[in-house]
Amino acid sequence: MTGRSQRMGRVLYVQYTNPGAYPPIDHSAHLLVAAGFDVLLLGTDVLGDVLTVKSHPGIRVKLRPFRAAGAGQKWHYGIFLLWSLAEAVRWRPDWIYASDPLSSPIALVLKLLLGARVVYHEHDAPSASTSAFMRLVLAARRRLARRAAVCVLPSRLRADAFGRETGRTDAVVVWNCPVRDEVAPPRPADAGGHLRVLYAGSIVPSRLPATVVRALALVPAEVNLTVVGYETAGHPGYFASLQETAREVGVADRFVGLGPRSREELMRTCADYDVGIALFPLTTDDPNENAMVGASNKVFDYLAGGLAVLVANRPEWRRAVVEAGYGLECDPGSADSIAAALAWWLAHRAERSAMGERGRQRILDDWNYERAFRPVMDCIRGPVTGRGAPGYSTAATP
After folding, report:
1. What is the pTM of this model?
2. Per-residue pLDDT tens over the stretch 151-210
3. How many CB atoms neighbour CB 392 within 10 A?
4. Could you tell me the strand order of the sheet in which 117-121 lies?
5. How many CB atoms lie within 10 A of CB 194?
6. How far is Cα 319 from Cα 315, in angstroms, rounded to an integer?
7. How does strand 308-312 pair with strand 275-278?
8. 277 vs 252, 317, 328, CA distance in Å?
9. Contact assessment for residue 255 and residue 225, using Cβ atoms and an 8 Å cutoff
10. For 275, left (φ over 0), alpha (ψ -120 to 50), or beta?
11. What domains lie within the chain, and their CATH numbers?
């Protein structure tokens, strides 16, 4: 075979953002390489100095310069599309792995042009929009969904909504779990002292409300909070406002921001903390925030590090985390409610450690990406059978 891979085949990922910002993309790429595929990821370099895909000789990453939203972004997208087409024609992939709505038009053209099979993996549902550009994107998304070999969604609720919007009702649900290699070793017995609390993720009011900072003033000084992450384009200056709140309530020395970290650094960081915060609003109009169980990386990442988890008092989170014995619940809008949970953990360190260990073991045994991604892997490795591999039109969550 001249000019073609001698391995299982070639998988081209296309995403109109930085693939390093999405752990499931990193995980799936490494699992495909381990199975014998060659992988090329195309994206943009937003936060490319920090958010990187873990290096592997079988994985190549090519990034175009990032362009912020504005009048010039449409031209930037057009250039990105043409560049992706050129890369695909040159590389001749067997599979296109499209992993966001904005990649839908590109993947659709590549399927028609090259005849490659498609995995469509949607991490977040697109926002409602009346712009001509987004109407084009959504039309391509619907058409691609019907033509893809397999569609992947990170939660059952999102898969159901996707089916109503696109007509594709057999999407595979793959939770955004860590891989087993990312699970921390068992922790030694907790000797007491401080309660180290971690928030990791995008720094926005709905995920890290100011009530979390205010709660620090209501608990002993042994409780501190560290934030790892980055501000999104829609909330510039929000972290500075949280710092000002911390100064106002007298806890500036217990509220620390580390900025964004790579995936590998984040997972190492998790093991240094006791409790992870994963709060979502009790009521919201955002369909993505109403369907976060399975889609939230941070919950699984905390558990992999052996942390207990503080979640919002919503029925789905109570079932997944609190009733399973991995954490506590609170009202995200109440500093008193958050403080009560933190104070309980400070006073019950053995119980806190047991929660973290139960969650850590659940990741190893069950909630890991190797298991979650298996139906998609079987489809890609298996014979061509129309849309996907037999027996995997609907898949159980881990």
Report:
1. 0.91
2. 999 999 999 999 999 999 999 999 999 999 999 999 887 767 899 999 999 999 999 999
3. 19
4. 59-64, 37-44, 9-14, 95-98, 117-121, 150-153, 172-173
5. 13
6. 6
7. parallel
8. 18, 13, 10
9. yes
10. beta
11. 9-177+369-381 (3.40.50.2000), 180-365 (3.40.50.2000)
